[in-house]
Amino acid sequence: MTALGLYFSRKSINRSEVARKTGINKTRLSELSNQEKTHLRAEELYLIALAIDVDPGEMFIELHQDLKLPEEK
């Protein structure tokens, strides 16, 4: 499960409702939730955040908090 899938689970978010509100189809939401190789695009994150009434910036930070800059040598 991806960070987005875990986020949806933690918040009990209905993917069908998100799909209806955003226009992102259910198959794409399923891929974004379950397949690590599938990348969430910025516009998708923004639309999802609007649909579930959360701040897009906070959602971005929560989903990508594991990203770090590479260490300089």
UniProtKB/TrEMBL annotation:
Pfam families linked to this entry: HTH_26
Gene Ontology MF terms in the entry: DNA binding
HTH cro/C1-type domain segment(s): 10-60
Listed Gene3D superfamilies: lambda repressor-like DNA-binding domains (1.10.260.40)
UniProt cross-references to InterPro entries, sorted A to Z: Cro/C1-type_HTH (IPR001387), Lambda_DNA-bd_dom_sf (IPR010982)
Protein name (database record): Putative transcriptional regulator
Organism: Leeuwenhoekiella aestuarii
Taxonomic lineage: Bacteria, Pseudomonadati, Bacteroidota, Flavobacteriia, Flavobacteriales
